[in-house]
Amino acid sequence: MTGTGAGERMHALVRRLHPLHRSMTGDGVRQTLEIIAEEVPLTVHEVPTGTPVLDWQVPREWNIRDAYLKNRAGERVVDLARSPLHVVGYSVPVSRTMTLAELRGHLHTLPDQPELVPYRTSYYGDTWGLCLSENTLRGLREDEEYEVLIDSTLADGHLTYAEHVVEGSGAGEVLIECHTCHPALASETLAGIAVAVELARSLTAPRHTYRFVFAPGTIGSITWLARNRDRVEHIRHGLVLACAGDPGGLTYKRSRRGDAGVDRAAAHVVAARGGTVVDFTPFGYDERQFCSPGFDLPVGLLTRTPNGAFPEYHTSADDPGFVTAEALADTFTAVREIVEVLEENRTYVNLSPYGEPQLGRRGLYGTPGLDQMAILWVLNLSDGTHDLLAIAQRSAIPFAAVAQAARALAAAALIKEVGT
Amino acid sequence: MTGTGAGERMHALVRRLHPLHRSMTGDGVRQTLEIIAEEVPLTVHEVPTGTPVLDWQVPREWNIRDAYLKNRAGERVVDLARSPLHVVGYSVPVSRTMTLAELRGHLHTLPDQPELVPYRTSYYGDTWGLCLSENTLRGLREDEEYEVLIDSTLADGHLTYAEHVVEGSGAGEVLIECHTCHPALASETLAGIAVAVELARSLTAPRHTYRFVFAPGTIGSITWLARNRDRVEHIRHGLVLACAGDPGGLTYKRSRRGDAGVDRAAAHVVAARGGTVVDFTPFGYDERQFCSPGFDLPVGLLTRTPNGAFPEYHTSADDPGFVTAEALADTFTAVREIVEVLEENRTYVNLSPYGEPQLGRRGLYGTPGLDQMAILWVLNLSDGTHDLLAIAQRSAIPFAAVAQAARALAAAALIKEVGT
Amino acid sequence: MTGTGAGERMHALVRRLHPLHRSMTGDGVRQTLEIIAEEVPLTVHEVPTGTPVLDWQVPREWNIRDAYLKNRAGERVVDLARSPLHVVGYSVPVSRTMTLAELRGHLHTLPDQPELVPYRTSYYGDTWGLCLSENTLRGLREDEEYEVLIDSTLADGHLTYAEHVVEGSGAGEVLIECHTCHPALASETLAGIAVAVELARSLTAPRHTYRFVFAPGTIGSITWLARNRDRVEHIRHGLVLACAGDPGGLTYKRSRRGDAGVDRAAAHVVAARGGTVVDFTPFGYDERQFCSPGFDLPVGLLTRTPNGAFPEYHTSADDPGFVTAEALADTFTAVREIVEVLEENRTYVNLSPYGEPQLGRRGLYGTPGLDQMAILWVLNLSDGTHDLLAIAQRSAIPFAAVAQAARALAAAALIKEVGT
């Protein structure tokens, strides 16, 4: 279904989005959404600074044009042009000449990973800073003065997020959400966006409506929730996508409910693909907001290696070279399989429940392409309380084979769908 | 309780039943039932071809008189007289001369077990075939013509099954069922019959009524269920017996309910005897029909090595030499212990529930032959929600000692039976 | 919290109580209670012989003044003055000269532990006996007569028990019970008393009322229950303390309910301290009575090495040298931690449940001394169904940190206590 084509296409998108200057707000986010909109149509929302959203307010908008640290020789030893990570997100403007001693409190490095530049923000701190490698820092001279410039604006403006909707035939919605706020983190941020875009492209006439939300972390999902409080009751299932492109295995973190439909579907798929399933924790990505106790939505988090669990996390090493087309394709395949379970999972009742029905005269005995054990399991467990996913798990037969058996049995009028 | 006498008696019955020409219907089944009736009285039921039974109809009756493959020299290279397995069950009559090439589609062998003859049927196929060893097949000549004869009849007649009932003092019934349809499979078919017969002989004035059903697999239990739909509500517990004579360990497959009384009793006994307990699957023997969702009866399957899990399964190697008197006796002992739990398991309420009662003045303290811990456990857990089996499992005290303690406590009016 | 002071103080109490002649009734018990009353005020109850108590009657009172076995040379080869264990509890008076052969049925030893004197009683046997080491017995001469004297009285009198109550601000009671009936068993009996006394001293203005009961085993708790049947409904939690001073690890035995509040609290504390948690059994100490099915109180048993599981159990080797101040302090710390959970455990509801509240503007983000993950967990799970203990267990964060986070969140009006 995916082939190398999808993996390469997703990787190209990651590479294209990587150099942009994203933050919680600002033009880097808008440029990101414009590129996504070349792939799938987006509705972009601009929410003014100061708008009350749940317990919060939409913050000021931040934009960055230039940032550097220049030595006496006029060389930019730190230069935003080399990486968006070099400036602390939401830094206030600064233009000064300072000694290294004065600068130190504003310089962020990773002493244990001396070649890497860290990712740092100071959203609500009204301060500024530069990020650089420990090796670069070690090359600076104690007795020298440096010119520091951060050409940023932090002013009333807007928070920007976007939606793409694939309408389904039924009443339920599936929410797919990615954070858009991190600059230059290829697997952590961009891989999830690329998988979401690929999923959106792949959906044709689904049963559920699929709503894709691209928004900054925390404040973005809080803003979306504040503006969509009537909509959340329609959300049947949801997935947050992040850390989606590294070579490690899949990890699914359950929703707060733990046994919601998406939890069962994702646990089934991820476990079958050799991945790991972990319980909900109130720390991570926007599932924190969707799973706050007032909403308690059935939204889980799908990653490969989880946030904080790989050394490249939140550093300049999380670049497009860290992401592989194979990993992106594998994440996409897992998401597709989860979606197939969400689409195809149904509950049936056996219309011939006394003894086994005679399958031979209905062409359901030994039929090539039909899994005979799946036929027997669906007949036996279709009592209105077991859905097809439960039957697949109990029988250890792949969901697709169980769903196929159910379709054949329904066509033969031996089972009938009930409820949902 | 069993001794070698029971084991040898059961083995003798297996040997006596082994040569008969059993199939789904026909005189081989009738002869089988006649031999069983020498041990325990049977009520034999004959149900006419075409009778509607649940989703099925009673099929035509099949009888076989002779079958062979004769070479040009007049030698019977395959001969029904040597084994009932040599003819495919329900083969239509045939009398022809054919080349080996023409014959091949009608000859069934086991290439991986070249010395063995397979067991095959074609109940609803209106075709014919012979079963032989791969070695025999290899000895046939490509350039030779063979005379094939199957002297069978497939015509309106009857499906034959039988019942033996041991009346109990209470209202509940225990169903014990064995399939009678397989020719010359000693452990798979005949050992279960022998154990059932031995159990029937051993029951005297039980609490429950024990109903033994000897019927062809699938269509036989479907016919019985169709003719006993009012009776099934009385079935409190049930066991299907099959694959009961091989030297491997015991296996109990739970009913569809999973935690029915018979499941708890059999799991307790089989686990204590070092056997294996597995969950229900809708594949196996007639528990498939009893556990169809419309009936959902509390009927499990007791075997030694399960169907399909031993290399002799459905081959000529499943002969009386494969069955041992020790294995038969061990299966019988397990069934007896399960029956004892079904008979003795009760729920009590403590009549002196505030503090421990003073046991000494009632002769229940330090009494030889009474398990003091069993006394304390029965007193503590007799609150109307724990039956004796639950107490035995929680306390890890053998069921018999718990039941004995309960009898002593009931005699001292410290506990009283409730409900059932 | 405890330091070596508490451990040494408890050990001193064990040493002081060790020489007294305790039994089910009598002056040894009264002297024990008098010494305890020097530490914490006691209300002493005297219940007359013959008083009906549940299924029992208060027995006669037993007192012992002297007991010995004297050889022909006039030496006391067994002498009560050397250990209270030398006389079988509740021995009737005797003063005779007997051969060793006549004596043997009255002499109790431990052949496998030849240096130790066993602990024996015969409460309801109207017999007598002496306990001695196997080595002493082996030194007696077959051909010699011995003078045996037991100067005891067994007559109408009283059963004595005592209570100490620390009133709490709330309506619930916590029951702490120790048995007082065993002579000269330092860890088995006296360590539990010492820990209870230390706990009583440590409580100041608790939420719950703490009721300490010092009573003889079995008949004492039965008497207490009989006289307090109206009170038991107020018991929210309870602990029986015994075997509290040996160097082994902690063991908590759950109440009959298995998941009562005290079970969850004690399991959490004991597991975190590397101890063992076991299921209820109707054998042990007075939890047997509190957990009889009529009362079914939430009372567990806290020990170090459990009764019967250490070789010194019920022998003269269970002396003050077997008990360590460190072990006593560790038991006390565990009890204090359990009490802290019982005191501090509450259920809250999040007052800002839609999305995460903005913690920064409330001084709850990155605040030194506050566990940020505990803050997030309490917010996420405070929906009226998870108490703080459940949150601590789910998050694997220490209870104290969770409770502290909850206090900070409650002070910020982000959560509100509900029910209890």
Automatic annotation (TrEMBL), chains A, B, C:
<dbReference type="Pfam" id="PF16254">
    <property type="entry name" value="DUF4910"/>
</dbReference>
<dbReference type="InterPro" id="IPR036388">
    <property type="entry name" value="WH-like_DNA-bd_sf"/>
</dbReference>
<keyword id="KW-0378">Hydrolase</keyword>
<dbReference type="Pfam" id="PF16221">
    <property type="entry name" value="HTH_47"/>
</dbReference>
<feature type="domain" description="DUF2172">
    <location>
        <begin position="61"/>
        <end position="153"/>
    </location>
</feature>
<protein>
    <submittedName>
        <fullName>Aminopeptidase-like protein</fullName>
    </submittedName>
</protein>
<dbReference type="InterPro" id="IPR032589">
    <property type="entry name" value="DUF4910"/>
</dbReference>
<dbReference type="InterPro" id="IPR032610">
    <property type="entry name" value="DUF2172"/>
</dbReference>
<dbReference type="Pfam" id="PF09940">
    <property type="entry name" value="DUF2172"/>
</dbReference>
<dbReference type="InterPro" id="IPR012353">
    <property type="entry name" value="UCP015244"/>
</dbReference>
<feature type="domain" description="DUF4910">
    <location>
        <begin position="11"/>
        <end position="345"/>
    </location>
</feature>
<keyword id="KW-0031">Aminopeptidase</keyword>
<dbReference type="InterPro" id="IPR032622">
    <property type="entry name" value="UCP01524_HTH"/>
</dbReference>
<dbReference type="GO" id="GO:0004177">
    <property type="term" value="F:aminopeptidase activity"/>
</dbReference>
<feature type="domain" description="UCP01524 winged helix-turn-helix">
    <location>
        <begin position="346"/>
        <end position="416"/>
    </location>
</feature>
<keyword id="KW-0645">Protease</keyword>
